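Predict the assembly for these two chains.
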Amino acid sequence: MNIDIKTKHNVTRAGNGSQTIMFAHGYGCDQNMWRFVAPAFEDKYDVVLFDYIGSGQTNDDLYDFDRYSSLEAHAEDIIQICEEMELKDVIFVGHSVSSMIGVLAAGKRPELFNHLIMIGPSPCYINKDNYYGGFSKEDIDELVETLESNYVGWSSFITPVIVGNPDQPEFTEELNSSFCRMNPDIAKHFAKVTFLGDNREDLNKVSVPSLVIQSDPDSIAPVKVGQYVHQNLPNSTYKKLEASGHCPHLTAPGQVINVLKDYLIHSN
Amino acid sequence: MKPISNIEDTEELYQNAPCGYLSIWSDGSIFNVNNTLLKWLGYQREEVLSGRYFQDFLTIGGKLFFESHLIPLLQMRSEVSEINIELKGKDSKKIPTLVNLKKIESPLKNKEVFWISVINIAQRNLFEKELIKAKKVADENSKRLIELTQNLEKFASTSTHGLQAPIHAIADLISLLETNNLIKPGYESQRIISMMKTNSTRLDRMILDLVDYSRILDKEICSEKVPLNDVCNKALDFIDKEFSVNRAHFIIPELPLVLGDPDQLELLLYHIFKNAINYRSEAVPVVKVTFTKKDKFYVISIKDNGIGVEPENLGRIFNFLERLHTYESIPGTGLGLAICKKIVENHGGVIRADSAFGNGSLFYFTLPIEI
C-alpha cells in the first residue's frame, strides 16, 4: 500500500514563512485542537498540522495494533512526514503525549528539528519509586477499564449535547465530531500505550533546544512532572502559564501564542 | 395565604434538592457544594471545600475528558449538558452521573464560575452495562458467523472445483470407449455405458451450476453502468455454443443502461434464456424481451412460448435444487432459477414468474436505473 503521506495523516499546510512549525495534537484529540493557536503563526511560518493514525480524519484501517504498541511508531511517522515533505529545521510543538513522541523523534533525528516545544508533557504518568507521575498503576488500569465499559465521552452513543450559539450550528457539529471521533478499540489501545509508557530515559537524548510549557493546576500532567521534564532535558527552558488545565492551547490560547512567540524570538 | 417564596426556602432548595449541585472556579477549585452531593460522595463539607478541585473527584478517564474536552467546550459554549462522568466518593466508591454545566460571568476579573448539576444514574448505568454486555455477545456472534460463512463459501467453491476434474476424466473415458469402438452394440454393456454417460453429463451440469451459485453467494456486487444489450448478446453467445441445433428466435429491442454487476447479469440472462429453450413446447422457441420504467427501477420482462408452469407450482420454481420434472424427461439441475433469484436479490431487486400451463412463461425482474 502506497498512500501519500499527506493523505495518510490528513496533513494541512498554511502560511507564508520558510521555517516550518509543526503542531502535534494529544490523546483523544485531533489537529482541530490547534484552531486558536496555529493561525497566529501563519504570517511568519510554514504551519503544518496533521492527525496521528487512529485519530481525527485518518483511516482506522491503517492503525496497526502491533506497530503502534509503542510511541516509537508515531515518532517514525513524524520523521516520515518530515522526510517526504522535505521539511527541515522544524519547530515541533507537541501537546501532552505528543511531547514524548517529539522527544523520540528528535532523539532519533536531531538534524530535522530546530526546537522542541512541549505543552503539558509527562514522560511517565505512573508513580515509580521516587518518581512522581501523578497516577498509580491502578488509576491507569481503571482508565483502560473505563474506556472498555463506558468509553467516557468519546463514544458515538454518549455524545455531549452542546447548548448555546444556535446561530452557528455547523461549528457545534464540527466540534462534536472532532471531539468525539475515535474508534473505541483504538482509543483503548492508544490509551494503554500513552499512559503505561515510560520515556524518562529518552529525555537526555534530546540535543535540540526545548521549551516546556506548564499550566497550574494540570490534573493530567502536574507541575512537578513538568519540572522533572525540564530538569532532565539537556537544553531546555521552562515556562509556567498563568492558566489552569491540561489544554491551555484551547482555554488560554493568547498566553500560549505569546509564550511561543517570545521564546522563538529570543532563541533565534 | 403566604406567597410561595416564603414557604420554599431557597437555601433549603439548594442544599437538599433532588440533584447534586456544586460551583467551581474555571481552574476546577470547588467553592460551594450542596448536601445532596455531599451525601452521595460521603464527604463532609469541610473536606470538599478545603482547596479541593472538581478534578480530584474524577477517575483518570474523567480527568482526561474534563481537561481536554469539557473545559474547552465550556469556554466556547456557555452550557454543556448530559455529560456521562463517574465521580469518586469516599473509599473510592464510584458514582455514575450525568452532569450539566453552565458558565457564569464572574464578579471577579479573569475568573469564571461554572455551575454544575449532578444526577445519579447508578440504576441506568446497570442497565447500560447489560446493554453493552449484550452488544459484545452480539458482536462476537456476528464475527463468528462471518467466519463460518467464509469457511463454508471456501469449502463450497473448492469442493465444486475439485469435483470437476474427475467427472471430466470419466466423460473423456466414456468418449474414448465410443471413439475406439470398444462398446459392443446390442449388449447390456452398451445400455449401462449410455446411462453412465447421461449421469456423468448430469453431474457435470450440476457442478457447473453449483460453481455459478457459489460465485454469486453473498458476493459484493461491483456496480457499474451496464448496457443490457451487451449483456444479452454475451448470454446469447453462450446459448449458441450450448445449443447448436434448434436455435430459438430471440426478439430483443434496444434496452436501457442499468446499474449492476455485468458478470452476474450475464449469468442471470443466460439461465432465463436457457430455461426458455429447455422447457420449450413443440413450437420453435420464441423469446421476447421487453422493459418498462418504474420509479428508480426498470422492470425487465422475458416471455417465452414454452410449456409454462402450473400456477400452483410457480411458488416453487425459484427454490434451491427444486425441480418440477424428472431429469429423464427434461434435463436440469434445479439451480438455474435459484441463481437468477440470488443475482436479482444481490442487485436489490425482485424476480417473479407468471404462467399459464401450456401458454409459455413470463419472467420479470427489477434492476436499478443507472443514475
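The two ends of chain A are 40 Å apart (CA to CA). Strands of chain A lie at 12-14, 20-24, 46-49, 90-95, 113-119, 161-163, 210-214, 236-240.
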